[in-house]
Design brief:
- By secondary structure, the protein is mainly α.
- About 55% of the residues lie in helices and about 0% in strands.
- It has one domain.
- It is built from three helices and no strands.
- Helix 2 crosses helix 3.
- The N and C termini lie far apart (about 30 Å).
Length: about 60
């Protein structure tokens, strides 16, 4: 689980897909629903923000 007290920036590259607040924020940034974001993340096979964003870019509208 994500340690919310650690503020060193290492966590910015990943989304904790079990944390509704992180998923909601990332989904909002991508302009999609939280449920859709989690689907894209699962399909992309990663929790990396950049990889998920690339996957969304490549597959949005499929």
């Amino acid at each position: 689980m994500d340690n919310k007290k650690k503020q060193d920036g290492r966590d910015d590259a990943k989304v904790d897909l079990n944390d509704p607040n992180e998923v909601s924020y990332a989904a909002q940034q991508a302009g999609i629903s939280s449920e859709k974001y989690k689907e894209y993340a699962k399909a992309a096979g990663t929790n990396g923000r950049q990889a998920i964003a690339k996957y969304i870019e490549d597959h949005a509208g499929d």
